[in-house]
Structures are given as structure tokens and as C-alpha cells.
Structure prediction request, 229 residues.
Amino acid sequence: MIHSSATAKYRCFLYNQGLMPYLDAHQWQRSLLQERINNPSLDDVLILLEHPPVYTLGKGANSEFIKFDIDKSEYDVHRVERGGEVTYHCPGQLVGYPILNLQRYRQDLHWYLRQLEEVLIRVLANYGLSGDRIPGFTGVWLEGYKVAAIGIKVSRWVTMHGFALNVCPDLKGFERIIPCGIADKAVGSLADWIPGIKCQEVRFCVAHCFSEVFGVELVESQFEKSAYS
Prediction:
């Protein structure tokens, strides 16, 4: 299936993956990013997937926002190069990793963050839900509950990392951290408003809204591990 904006200027490869270990996806992103730094003419990429349970911290994240001993943790914990504080990924959460050359769009990180929020706000609107931004914070909220987190890394104007939308995850994993370092705002998921909703159906909506917001033609592609291993 090809998702195409009516005003598409660029092609973007869409990889619809299933459950992928965090470090595998991280290595894949880094490989794609480096290829595009070396050759800026390469097409952009959008990866949509889910992760097994894992905690990640941004490069400057405060470990005080973790409520367990990292050194004795039964949970996978990784500190990575994205911005932002600690977050949690697990099945039922749809994660999007856009590898975009912002020189094609706008060389403005604040603009890019707002565009990612706009994608997710449009996804919620598709389900009759009104997503909100909160000034001073990055992400999307629904009736006061944070349903989407965003954290990015940009090198030579090529992006990696991205967004995580809580579709139908087990939210208990968030109880072991202060998500994104925000203590006074609870985390929610779309399943709280739409019982029975699954990531599989939301993927298509996310892809469509992404193509609209960024004005790209999404071309579905197949993942080959040999390409980066």
C-alpha cells in the first residue's frame, strides 16, 4: 500500500515492522542516518514498530526519575543519544522512527517537533479524540493524560528517534519511572477511550497522517537485517 499526500514532493520508505528488540532498532536507525549523512540524496524513511519492555534515557536524562536500581534491574535500560528524560516502551505502544533530511523541509528543530505532534493530533482526530499540546512540554495529551511522547536526535539535519503513541499497552511499566520527568501528569492510552483498539489498525492512520503533514509519498518496503548487521 502506498500512502501519498496530494502535495507530495518527496518519497519516503515505510517499514511496517512487528516487535523488534530496542537495540536492533537503534542500530538500524544509526545505520540509516549515517548513510544519509554520507549521501543526502537518499530517500527518507519512516519505521513503525513495537518494542519488548524497555526503559530508555535521553543523553542528559536524570536517573532520579527512575524508581528502581538500574544496576540491579530486571528490566532492560539503555541510555541513548536522543533528547528528553526517561521513557518506557512495550508491546501495545506504536513507535515511529522518522529518518528525515530536514534540509528538504525546514532546518528548524522546534518546527519538526511540532510537526510530529501534529501527526499524532491528526491520528487522534481520526478517532474523534481531541489531542492537546501543553506549552513548555513536548508530546500530545488527551484530557490531561499524556498519550504520546517525543524524543529526537538530529545530525547534519538528518533525524533519528521519534515518537511513541500509547495505543493499548500495559501502563504498569510507567509506574516504575517518572515519565519524561513530569511528575504531575498521568500517562494514558487510546484504549482508555476506545476499548479494543490495536496497534495494527492505528499504523495505517499514522502513516496516512504522516504523509499529509510532511507532504511525502510513503512507499512500503521490506526490512532486511543484512542491510545493517
In short: The CA atoms of residues 41 and 187 lie 39 Å apart. The first strand starts at residue 2 and ends at 4.
